[in-house]
Amino acid sequence: MQSITIGSNQAGQRLDKFLHKCLPQAGTGFLYKMLRKKNITLNGKKAEGNELLCTGDEVRFFFADETFSKFSGKTLSTGGTALANARKNSSVLLYEAQKAYQTFSEIEVLYEDNHIIILNKPAGILTQKASPQDVSLNEWLIGYLLSENPNLESELDTFRPSVCNRLDRNTSGIVLCGKSLAGLQYLSRCIKERTIRKYYRTICVGCLNEADTMKGFLVKDKIKNKVVISFEKTGSQDSKSIETKYRPLCYTSQYTLLEVELITGKTHQIRAHLAGMGHPLIGDFKYGDNQINKRLQNKFGLQHQLLHACRIEFPVTEDSAGLAVSGKTFTAQCPELFRRIQSALQLDIS
Fold first, then answer.
1. List of domains in the chain
2. Residue 257: which of 204, 183, 192 has the closest Cα?
3. pLDDT per residue as tens digits for the range 4-43
4. Which residues make Cβ contacts (< 8 Å) with residue 20, sequence separation at least 6?
């Protein structure tokens, strides 16, 4: 018999979802059969699976050790072959986390409490894996938290801290992460409800001398990993409404330093929206002016779009997971290369 006592990061979710995390190799039908037969119990009683777990609850598994190990995905099958499509076991996760933590030494922690951690991501780092062999900010986060609290390792089978907002690999700046289940739920809700205000800095081609709000429709080409912007509704079912605000901070006849606020947050929205207006971001070889980009690349070594998530403003809230950041603003300074190019293009803010 195995027993698990529910902690704060497991509480608040349905029992059946928790069981899937504990036993990822067990099918749904098997788990419900075990519940019906009382081979899995909650606080010593028969359970249906839809119960919401509370801190201190006890889940018992009346399985043989071999059976529990097999369904948890931590052992090999009887034939000696690794379980097909098995969730990465804890040793692999720990290796990846340690590797990411050692590799990405330049990541800056802007803020941290019991529920939330706010990071400043350099350009060139994925926020989440794009392929199995990638190392991303998600793995770095676990490595960092393990370095602060080695006891976290025992919770990773059923709860993993995670990045909540995604930035493109070559976009730098603020990334929000949940350290606890309550923190993840709070941040996810704020992002979904658009109560967190997100601001970016960029330098675009051409002169924009007045603040404005851009509206349009976006369609993503998944094969090319590129989006198309139209300013009228198209017939495509995949067409999504987008809205982007901007205000110029400084401008010349050739370039503009912009602060951009994302009202909606779709793939490549800022890059494609400004390019669609004829003002592409400098360094953006996917949507931009390649002639200008080549010139800046040769002069400054700029190899990616100059886009930085510079500021986050949290809403006033009574949510316990968000109380510490309620109504607060967090900023991340633009990278050194950004500031150097900004100065060279005579876009310094007085």
1. 2-72 (3.10.290.10), 90-193 (3.30.2350.10), 197-344 (3.30.2350.10)
2. 204
3. 888 888 888 899 999 988 888 889 999 999 999 999 999 9
4. 26, 28, 31
> How far is residue 142's CA from residue 157's CA, in Å, rounded to a whole number?
12
Residue 56 CB coordination number (10 Å): 11
Task: Of 282, 7, 307, give the one whose Cα is nearest residue 157.
Answer: 7
Q: Is the separation of the CB atoms in 157 and 21 below 8 Å?
A: yes
pTM: 0.82
Tell me phi and psi for residue 186, to 5 degrees.
-65, -50
CA distance from start to end of the chain: 69
Q: CA 56, 61, 67 angle in degrees (round to 5)? A: 140
Burial of 14 (C-beta count, 10 Å sphere; 0-12/13-18/19+): middle
